[in-house]
Amino acid sequence: MVKLQPSRFGIVDARADSLACDLFIALDVDAKKRLKGAPYGDGIRACVSLLAMLHKHVGASYVSLVLKGLRERCFYAEDLYVFDEMSYQLETMGITRV
């Protein structure tokens, strides 16, 4: 088994780190749409459905790693707003918030 080194975001699991990066791109697109006043939410829905599926099939600890990496990538207010909206939707499904 390969030893994984912590990423710059502190995530030890490289797969979780990579997924957090991909999900951040989806949320960032929604954040930019929100700033322009355009309809948004596709990225949030995609993230919620993927994380819910992972929670069911892989487990809560993996989802926590992904959410931690995703949260640490949100530097700007618009990204944080979209992340919080996604986290709230996950919380209503019974998936704990970071």
Would you write up a description of this structure?
The chain has 98 residues and is mainly alpha-helical. The protein has one domain. The chain is built from four helices and no strands. It is globular and about 35 Å long. It starts with 13 loop residues before the first helix and ends in a 6-residue tail after the last helix. 29% of the residues are buried. The model is unreliable at 1-5 (pLDDT under 50).
SSE order and pairing:
Blueprint: H1 14-36, H2 42-57, H3 60-73, H4 77-92
Helix pairs in contact: 1-2, 1-3, 1-4, 2-3, 2-4
Provide a concise account of the structure shown:
This protein has helices at residues 14-36, 42-57, 60-73, 77-92.
Characteristic key phrases:
mainly alpha; disordered N terminus; 98 residues
Mind telling me the C-alpha Rg?
A: 13 Å
Query: Which regions contain 5 or more consecutive residues with pLDDT less than 50?
Result: 1-5
Mean pLDDT: 85
The percent range for strand residues is under 5%
What shape does the CA trace take?
A: globular
Strands, total number? 0
Largest sheet: none
Please tell me the total number of domains.
1
Number of helices: 4
Structural class: mainly alpha
Distance between the termini: 29 Å
Helical content class? over 70%
Would you list the SSEs in sequence order as H and E? HHHH
